[in-house]
Amino acid sequence: MSTTTITPREPSWILPSRGLVGVLCLIVAESAVFIIFVVAYIFYLGKSLSGPSPRDVLDIPIVSTGCLLSSSFTVYLAVAALRGNKVRLCSLWLAATVLLGGIFLGGTALEWRQLIYKDGLTIRTNLFGTTFYSLVGLHATHVVVGLVMLSLALVFALRGRVSEANAERLDVLSLYWHFVDAVWVVVFTVVYVLGR
Amino acid sequence: MADSIPLTGPIELTSAPKARPLTLEVLHDWVTTVDHKKIGLMYIGYALVFLVIAGLEAIVMRLQLAVPENSLVSPQVFNRMFTMHGTTMVFFVGMPILFGFGNYVIPLMLGARDMAFPRLNAFSFWISAFGGLLLYFSFLGGDGLYGAGTAPDVGWFAYAPLTSRVFSPGHSTDYWTLGIFLSGIGSIGTALNIVTTIISMRCPGMKLSRMPLLVWLYFVTCCMVFIAVGPLTAAQIMLSIDRYLGGHFFDTQAGGSAVLWMHFFWIFGHPEVYILVLPAFGFANEIIPVFSRKAIFGYPAMVAATVAIGFISLSVWAHHMFTVGLGPGANSFFTLATMIIAVPTGIKIFNWIGTLWGGNIHFTVAMMFCVAFLFQFLIAGLTGIMLSASPFDWQLSGSYFVVAHFHYVLVGAILFTIFAAFYYWFPKMSGRLLSETLGKWHFWLFLIGFHLTFDFMHVPGVLGMPRRIYTYELDRGWGMWNLIVSSGVIFQVLGIGCFVFNLLRSYFKGAIAGPDPWDAWTLEWSTDSPPPVYNFASIPTVQSRRPLWDLKHPEDPDSNYEM
Asked: Is residue B19 part of a domain?
C-alpha cells in the first residue's frame, strides 16, 4: 500500500477564497456588459441627426467624480480598519464612503435635471440622449446597488454585528466598489473628455 | 479488464434509513433545495421538457415544408415556430441541460460537498426557469389585453429593425427579450458558481493538472459565458430601451444602426456555439476513455486545445455577417480566424481517436453515441470550414445549407453526447442502469432519423432554398429533398420515444447500478449511487488524474506515469 488515494491530507492545500474568485468573475461579466455600452456610445458619437450635442450641454462633473474616486480610498481604509479589528473606525470610513457615493449620485441627479428641463435632452431626443442616459444610467444603477450594500454593512457595523472575521466579506464588497469606480474612470474619459 | 476490480460497494457511507416522506414534503424539499445534485436534476428535467416542446415546434415546421405549396400553418405561425424553436433550443434546452450535468458532476468529480455558492445556484436555476416560463407565456399574453396572444416571430437572432415597435407591435418581442435577459442572468450566475467551485473547492491533491477533462472544459465554457452572455444582456437592455423608452440604438430612422445589433448579437452568438459544444466535448472526454479502457490520450494537448478554442472563438463572430458587406479586410480576418479554429478542434478529434486506438473498446450505448459524435462532429466541422470561406458563404448564407451545418453541430455533436451522458451518468443519478436494449433502439432509430433529416438538408440549401420560408413552389425541385428531410423526423420521434420510455422505465425497474457500474476512474464513482446529500463522508485526497484507478490498482498507480 505504498500509494493509494486515501492518505493523510497535505497540510499545505490552500485554495483562493470563494468570495474573491466569485467577485472577480462578476467583475469580468459586468465589464463585458459595460464594454458593449461604451462601444455603442463611441460608435454613435456625432451620429445624432438632431441636437443637442455633447459639446452643447455637458459640463465636466469635477466634484462628483472627485467624490466617487475618493470613496474608493475610504472603502479601502474601512477594510484596513476592520482587518485591524477597529470596528468603530471601520464604520466611520464606511459612513464616509456612503456619503461620498451619495454626493456622486446627487451630482448625477442634478446634472440630469438640468439636461432634461433646461436643455431638453431626454432618452428619446437623439442618439446622444439614448446612449448617454443608458451608459451613465447603467453606471449609476451600479452605484445604487453598491450604496445599498455598503449601507447594509454600515448598519451592521453600527449595531456591533461586524468583527474582524467579516473583513474578507467587506473586502469582497470593496472590490465591487473599486470596480464601479474604475468603470466611472472609463465612462468619464469617454463621455466627458474624449467625446465632448 | 482482467486485472481490474470494479468497486462492489461505496467506499464510505454514513446515511441512515428514513421513513417515506409525504408528497408535500418532497415538493417543499425540491423547491427549497440548495443541493447541487437536486438543482442539477431540476436543470436537466426542465431542459428535457423544453426539448420536447421545441421538438414539437420543429415537427410543425417539417410537416409544413414536407411538400411544396403546403398550407398546414399560416406564414405567421411558421415564423413563430422557428423563432420559438431556435430560442428554446439554445437558451432553455442547451444551456440548462449542460449546466445541469455540470452542476451534478463537477462537485463530485472535484471531491467537494457542494458548489461554491449553493444559494446562488438555486437562484440561478429559478431565474432561468422563470425566463423560460415567461417566453412561453407569450403564447397567452403576447398581444397584451386584447385578442389572443402571439409568440415572438422575429427569428432567434431578432435582427433590427424588425424588432422595433413599428414592425413588432404588441408584447411578443418583449417576452422574448425578457426571457433571454433572465436566462442570461441565470447563466452568468451558474457560470460564476462553476468557475469558483473549480478554483476554490477542489479536494486536496486535485491540482489543475489532475482535474478530469470535463471539469477543464466547463471551466473554459464558463469563462466564455462571462464574456459572451454579458454583451447579449447589454443588447437586450438596449432593445428594451428602444421599445419602451423610445431610444434609438437600433432605430435607423434616427441614425441608429441595424448592423450594430448584428455585431452585438453575434459577439454573443458565436461564442455561444462553443459554450454549448465544449461541455459536449467534456462528456466525450470522460466516456471515450472509460469504454476504451485507456487513459485519455494527450491530456495536456486537450487542455491547451480547449483554451485555444475559447480564445479564438471570441474573434470569429462576424463570419455570420459576411453578406452584410464588411469589406475585404474584415472578411479576410474573420475567414482566417474561423479556419484557425479547425486546428485545436482537429487536435481534439485526433486525441479521441488516439484514445480509441488499441483500446479494448466496449460498445455500450453511451460509447455508441460518442463514436457517432466523432464522425458527425467531423462532418459538421468540414461544412463549417466550407462556410468560413467568405465567397462560399456569400452563396449559401441564409440557405438550408447553413441550417444543415449548424444542426449537424447542435444535434449530431451536442445532442448525441448529451444522450451519451445520460446513459453514462443516469446510473449515478438514479442508482439504476438504463436499459441497453432500449438504448440501442434509441441509438439506431435516432441515428437513422438524424442522417435522413440533416444529411439531405444540405441539398436543398445548395439548390438555393432559403431558410425561414414557410413554403415553396412546386417547380423549384426541392420537393423530394424536403420530403426525405421531413421523413427523418419520424425516426427521430421514435428514437426520442424509446429514450423517454427508457428513462421512465429504468427509473423504476432498471437494474441496480451500484456505485461504479462502468469500472470508471473519476471521483463521482467512489460514492454511492445516488450519492448521499453530503457526497463524501470524508473529503478524498487524490494523487493522479484517475484516483479510482489508483485505488483499484495500488500496485501500479497512475501517479508513477504522470508529470
From this structure: no
B246 to chain A, any CB pair closer than 8 A? The answer is yes
Here the ipTM equals 0.92
How many residue pairs from chains A and B have C-beta atoms closer than 8 A? 139
pLDDT on residue B171 = 86
Spell out, as residue ranges, where chain A has pLDDT lower than 50. 1-4
Contact B550 A5 (CB under 8 A): yes
Q: What is the CA radius of gyration of chain A?
A: 21
CATH number at B312 reads 1.20.210.10
What's the mean per-residue pLDDT of chain B? 93
Question: So what's the pLDDT on residue B14?
Answer: 62
Is B7 domain-assigned? no
Report yes or no on B126 lying in a domain: yes
Residue B437 has pLDDT above 50, yes or no: yes
CA separation (Å) from A52 to A55, A127, A189, B281?
A: 8, 10, 20, 53
pLDDT of res. B380 = 96
Q: Where in the sequence is the domain holding B250, given as residue range(s)?
A: 75-560
Q: How many domains is chain B partitioned into structurally?
A: 1
d(CA A141, CA A134): 10
Q: Are B200 and A17 an interchain contact pair (Cβ–Cβ within 8 Å)?
A: yes
B17 has a pLDDT exceeding 90: no
Q: Is the pLDDT of residue B229 over 60?
A: yes
* Confidence check: pLDDT of B121 > 90: yes
Which among A8, A25, A131 is the nearest to B195, CB-wise? Answer: A25
CB contact under 8 A, A126 and B248: yes
Q: Taking an 8 Å Cβ-Cβ cutoff, which residues of chain A contact chain B?
A: 1-10, 13, 15-18, 21-22, 25-26, 28-37, 40, 43-44, 47-49, 123-124, 126-127, 130-131, 134, 138
Distances (CA, A) of B108 to A106, B202, B308, B426: 49, 10, 26, 14
pLDDT of B519 reads 94
* Distance to chain B for A48, nearest Cα, Å: 6
Confidence at residue B13, expressed as pLDDT on a 0 to 100 scale: 62
H-only helix segments in B409-478: 416-430, 436-462
Q: Is B289 on the interface with A (CB under 8 A)?
A: no
Confidence of residue B561 (pLDDT cuts 50, 70, 90): confident
Distance from CA of B476 to the nearest CA of A (A): 43
Q: What domains can you pick out in chain A, each with its CATH number?
A: 51-194 (1.20.120.80)
- Contact residues, chain A, for B547 at CB < 8 Å: 5
In a domain, B8, yes or no: no
Contacts of residue B23, Cβ cutoff 8 Å, sequence gap at least 6: none
DSSP sequence for B145-211: TSSS-----STTTT-TTTTSTTTS-SSHHHHHHHHHHHHHHHHHHHHHHHHHHHHH-PPTT--GGGS
Residues of chain B in contact with residue A131, where contact means CB-CB under 8 angstroms, are 249
How large is the average pLDDT for residues B266-292?
96
Q: Between chains, do A25 and B191 touch, taking CB under 8 Å as contact?
A: yes
